[in-house]
Specification:
By secondary structure, the chain is α+β, with helices and mostly antiparallel strands. It contains 13 helices and 6 strands. It has helices at residues 8-11, 23-32, 35-51, 71-89, 93-98, 111-124, 126-141, 143-154, 166-170, 172-176, 183-190, 194-201, 236-248, and strands at residues 211-214, 226-227, 253-258, 272-277, 284-287, 291-293. It has a 6-stranded antiparallel β-sheet, with helices on one face. The two termini are 54 Å apart.
């Protein structure tokens, strides 16, 4: 369970705009409406959709089902909802005799049709449009200082070749061109791997060019915190040399890149640095919790004091 108080770095990248999520209330409202009111509401939603089309992007409108992933799919959803209402109005005379057309309500549409209309309501109702406008304004005002790094994180590729977020990875080019993601989707994806995100967004303790050394061998899971550039274990020869450096506390590492990729572990202090050891030519990755600033070896004073 995500607790904002425990992950302050990640919390800074969460949106201030509140997510508009009234799907349950919308479904209940739709089921209580008669067909005439429901048809009127659907017409108003379609007008709102066409009027505010520029607030959304054709490939950036996913709200629950595959058909809602592009503008044509949204229009088809409106058409399908209208067809369901028309079909109810044109039921057989025997059925209408038992259930008069004016007595039919949204609940007669069936669960999936009612849910589809609720999705459209949560996207194009007056309240939903206002929320979308607020989110677009917030995104554009804070993109360079805040959301650009968030997009870099969500579209980053892990050592297994997958993006941190599958949905954001698929539309990386669209997002880089200026598209604004859906608010609910952005927030959901950002906190889905909150321990990794916290390490990535945390302020680095060390900067480019710093000289660092490995921490004590007795307080670290050494083999779990050092990786090659692809995210796997380093060669045995390098690992053996690093262990000698760790136990003897001689030798140092030079930081040549901060945040070369997203963290690979879910533990605290998982921010990654690309480093190179003295006398070596092959760089590797090391977690922040395994290193510390280098300290000179203290010389003993004369007389043993």
């Amino acid at each position: 369970m995500f607790d904002a108080n425990k992950f302050p770095a990640l919390t800074q990248y969460l949106p201030k705009t509140e997510v508009y999520n009234r799907r349950i209330e919308a479904c209940s409202m739709i089921c209580d409406m008669n067909l005439e009111k429901l048809h009127t509401m659907l017409v108003d939603l379609k007008k709102s959709a066409n009027k505010n089309k520029d607030l959304y992007h054709h490939k950036d409108t996913f709200i629950g089902s595959p058909t809602m992933q592009n503008w044509n799919g949204i229009m088809l959803s409106f058409k399908a909802a209208e067809d369901c209402i028309d079909a109810l109005k044109e039921r057989s005379p025997q059925h209408v005799a038992c259930y008069p057309a004016e007595a039919l309500t949204g609940s007669d549409l069936g669960f999936y049709a009612a849910r589809k209309i609720a999705d459209l309501y949560c996207m194009f109702s007056e309240e939903a449009i206002e929320t979308r406008k607020q989110w677009v304004e917030e995104w554009q005002e804070n993109f360079s200082s805040k959301y650009k790094k968030a997009i870099e994180y969500l579209t980053s590729v892990t050592r297994w070749g997958n993006s941190i977020s599958y949905s954001f990875g698929k539309k990386k080019e669209l997002l880089e061109s200026g598209a604004v993601p859906l608010l609910a989707e952005y927030k959901r994806e950002l906190i889905s791997n909150y321990k990794i995100a916290e390490g990535y967004f945390a302020t680095p303790k060390y900067k480019l060019g710093d000289l660092v050394e490995l921490r004590s061998a007795y307080s670290n899971a050494f083999h779990l915190k050092i990786f090659d550039l692809e995210g796997y274990g380093v060669p045995w020869r390098v690992q053996s040399k690093l262990k000698q450096m760790q136990t003897s506390r001689r030798g140092f590492l030079t930081i040549i890149e901060v945040d070369p990729q997203v963290p690979l572990g879910y533990r605290k202090g998982n921010k990654l640095y690309k480093v190179i050891a003295a006398g070596e030519t092959q760089p590797f990755l090391v977690e922040e919790s395994l290193i510390k600033k280098i300290r000179g070896i203290k010389k003993k004073k004369k007389g043993g004091k």
